[in-house]
């Protein structure tokens, strides 16, 4: 049984022997900083990369690797039974093979067999090993058993190689691990085969080469949507406007600056998507003139910047679907930042916007409650065109993302998948 009390959540952090083992220290640190009790279980080969003193110092707990240490307490069974979550960073090809085979030849694999808690693995290995049919089959087996697989990302590997096999960013692994503690079934593999397009960030509308109009969007909600969708199996494209966050593992990131670029890149890809989520904060206006040279204070007219209206990209997608330029089955999700007042509640304003925009869902952030922009937490409502209303409890942006994907997946007959 997992630990059910209100005490600190207990996480087992397994570390297997690859060069990315050093990054497990960052995951460890991130988890302890947010209050988790972490027991680290390295494999014997992981200790060739990082010493147990580092894991002990960062976790504040003793580290053992073998099943024969601390025998009276049956450590391999106890750690697995008590855990609320087991995270393996990095998961090498060998560890994945041993997990798939159900081996129990060291403390980590024994713990993985003994636990009934959610298990998240973050693979890291050379591209050839990741793409080998044996590894692919092992990963598929683990997924069928409910193991959550985060990454790998594409990028620079050890030496001069580059390709899929790089460990997901430690901050992403930690965020998704925390999500599993908030909601253990938030990363089930129900978006496999579906293609999702997400916009994120805030557009910049230049006045000249050094100045622009923008907004306070950090892109965190859009990036969380991409992380969660990818971990749930979707093929994800992220159109990202001016976001200073690492790319989510396995996600195709297209960077844009302005609303017009965001429109162009989104419209170019929407036809290949099963779901489009407009999480970006799109500037409604842009300076009519974009000056090629920097505006000098001597020549400026201080009180006059002429503005032109930007297209409403979300409304345009809905119109394109109605006109048959996008598949009828594409689901479109918008966002709204609302505050209630003495005339209407946040929900009523959200409903009005949903009706105006004509999208399938609108995610209403209650910005009067001090959430949303730049924060790590969010709360609000998911309103459906079908009249549904789902309350999003206050939680991480990853939890909000998971609830949005739940709503989208539930709106389809069967899993969200290629819709032909
Ligand atoms: N959006 C868009 N194109 C714009 C402006 C907004 O696609 N030019 C999208 C956003 O990505 C978001 C939704 O529309 O999904 C927000 O709608 P909007 O009407 O801009 O809402 P608010 O910003 O809340 O604006 P308002 O001041 O009208 O309440």
Brief rundown of the structure:
By secondary structure, the chain is an alpha/beta fold.
Bound molecules: cytidine-5'-triphosphate
Q: What count of domains describes the coordinates?
A: 2
| Strands, count | 19
**CATH class division of the largest domain:** Alpha Beta
The number of helical runs is 13
The CATH architecture category of the largest domain equals 3-Layer(aba) Sandwich
Q: Structural class of the secondary structure composition? A: alpha/beta
Strand content: 15-25%
Q: Low-confidence spans: pLDDT under 50, at least 5 residues? A: none
Q: How would you describe the shape?
A: elongated
What is Rg? 23 Å
Structural account:
This protein has about 425 residues and is of the alpha/beta class. It has 2 domains: about 10-180, Flavin prenyltransferase-like (Rossmann fold, 3-Layer(aba) Sandwich); about 195-410, Rossmann fold, CATH 3.40.50. Helices cover about 35% and strands about 25% of the residues. The protein contains 13 helices and 19 strands. It has an 8-stranded mixed β-sheet with strand order 12-11-8-13-16-17-18-19, with helices on both faces. Strands 2-1-3-4-5 form a 5-stranded parallel β-sheet, with helices on both faces. It has a two-stranded antiparallel ribbon with strand order 6-7. It is elongated, with a radius of gyration of 23 Å. It binds cytidine-5'-triphosphate. Cytidine-5'-triphosphate binds near residues 259, 312, 314 and 334.
